[in-house]
Amino acid sequence: MLGDALAYLLDGSNWVGDQGLLPLLLQQLLITVTALAIALALGLPLALWLGHLGRGGFLAVNVSNVGRAIPTFALLALLVTASWPGTSYLGPYGRAGLATLLALAAFALPPIITNAYTAVREVAPDAKEAARGMGMSGWQQFLRVELPLAMPLIATGIRLALVQVWATATLAALVAGPGLGRIITDGFANTDYGKGIAGAVVVALVALVLELVAAAVQRMADPMRAAVRPTATVLPATS
Amino acid sequence: MKATRPLATLLAVGTVLLAAACGSDDGSTSSSGSEGGDKGKVSISGQSFPEATLVASMYEQLLDAQGYDASTTLVDTRDVYMADGQFPGSIQVVPEYVGGIVDYLNAKANGPDAASLTTNDPAASLSAAQSLFDDAGITMLDPSAATDQNAFFVTQDYADANNASTLSDLSGKSVVLAAAPDCAGRADCEKGLTDVYGITITKILPLGFASDQTYQSVLKDESQLGLTSTTDGTLADQGLVLLADDQGIQPAQNLVPAVDTSWAQDNPDAVDALNKLMAALDTEKLTELNGRVSVDREDPATVAKDFLTEAGLI
Q1: Quick one: closest CA in B to A190, which residue?
Q2: pLDDT digits (tens, 9 = 90+) for B160-201
Q3: Across the interface, do B181 and A175 touch by the CB < 8 Å criterion?
Q4: pLDDT tens for residues B243-261?
Q5: Do residues B70 and B64 make contact, with C-beta atoms less than 8 angstroms apart?
Q6: In this structure, is the dihedral angle defined by the CA atoms of residues B229, B230, B234 and B240, taken in order, positive or negative?
Q7: B206 and A190 in contact by Cβ < 8 A?
Q8: ipTM entry
Q9: Which of A148, B34, B127, B178 is the most exposed place for a label (fewest CB within 10 A)?
């Protein structure tokens, strides 16, 4: 059966065409990135602000966790059945594109909000106090002290959301929507297991690639990358 | 201390209510009714569309009345209950369709491109696949006169505009087809429509067999042709009409119980009861019962019970 999957993947004609692996892969990437962007635009400013204030986070985290509690498929099915957004086509996002984007964005919110809120809130009180002592305004304290220190954890949340959304986007196939899920459902519905597994393998491999790329970006984007090493060597000596 | 006593009372009352609820439940669910149990447990599985739910419920109540302890688990696709160790194995009885199970076993044994064994004749289709059933350890009981073939529907408006009452009337037309995910390439679906009827299928939307998504897609004119069955009791109410399969691309899809061979040998009275049920059903009756479930929203178990009582089977 894995041999069938490999044969399917190695056959170039399965990668091209209207329902080929490549266009569906690109479509799913586009959906993943867009859904993530929507979730970032909605969740990040709110979570950072509440983290800076150090309160209201309980509400934000729990409201966004509703996104985790409601099965994404249930939300998608609900949106598709509703008169808006329904199954309307949305440009390159295909059938039920808007419904898919909204369901996935809701799914991406919890890790983004939880991590960003916690990251900013849990910045060492000493550092915050030092910033205030130096006469920084709240805004300066946030930009120059809290945000850089919180960056690794915020980035972890985004990375988590990215990989989760990518893998979950396959659900769209259940409403004849966009993405690689179509390869999987088609394969299994037609007793063509090689095809179904091939689709799943591609989704898993791309998830790994996204994870690695995101990890690399995260390391490069970490403003404390250079600063951490010296303190790490100093710490044992002082304690 | 003050707070604990009301709490304890609440807990006690809650427990009693819960026990009472469970007690009354036992009487109404057929799987653990008072008459069930002495001939052993029977697991029924099948696909979870309304008609299969109804027929599975008939099986369950019929077997319970025979002294078995029957329980039903319905799933989305045949692959799930036909997986190794499921049926035959931990599942003993499945409400099947002649063409459906023959094609499935044929594709599994001889590959997806194997020549079809099914024809319009249910008995001939079953005997053509006899070796497949023997290999799988499955025994097919008597097929019913009731047949649930795939059928295609359009809106009344579309039928009027194109003067269509049969699939042949759509020859040369281009349509989008809303159908089950396994439609592509099947002789009784996309391939048959294309090769036999000369209809150009521009796109297949895998929205499911007679599913709400499929009806909605056709009603919204996103697709023009939708897949359902000859026993669909909901079409008229929705302003949808069936197009006749005038060139016969649909193989026999008579209702037939598929049972675990060794279980069937040990339980001749269950086999006998299921055969009597099959003899009592026909297409017209089944369509009417389907309508009660899908249009009137009656509980499938109630509709099944009414039929079994009326037919003198329980």
Answers
A1: B182
A2: 999 999 999 999 999 999 999 888 888 889 999 999 999 999
A3: no
A4: 988 888 888 899 999 999 9
A5: yes
A6: positive
A7: no
A8: 0.75
A9: B34
